Amino acid sequence: MVAKKRIGYYSNKRIGDKIYHTSTWRKLRRSYYGKKHGLCEQCGKPGDIVDHIEEITEENVNDPFVTFNEENLQLLCLSCHNTKTFKKHFATRDDVMFDEFGQLIKK
């Protein structure tokens, strides 16, 4: 039986999916996870995601020095990964913070 290609499926895939389904990536991920003892490199909690420090893009997805380089990897828990990944999608300011009452104040 031949699988049918779903319309729009490929346009919805992440750029990195091309490498994440390879045996090379699975071996690298497993090895890196073990070297970091399964702990998030940011907070020390159990790690969930072997993350690329330099984000995978259409320009570098075929560059093994980006995609398969341990120096470009970090093990993160889901919370730290989401903070890193989604921070760029939200407006942030470095000159303000919240006080103990939840009020916005200058740093």
TrEMBL record:
GO molecular function, one term: nucleic acid binding
Residue stretches in coiled coil: none
InterPro entries, per the entry: HNH, HNH_nuc
HNH nuclease domain: residues covered: 27-82
Annotated organism of origin: Halalkalibacter krulwichiae
Entry keyword set: Endonuclease, Hydrolase, Nuclease
Pfam families the UniProt entry points to: HNH
The name this protein goes by in its record: HNH endonuclease
Superkingdom to which the source organism belongs: Bacteria
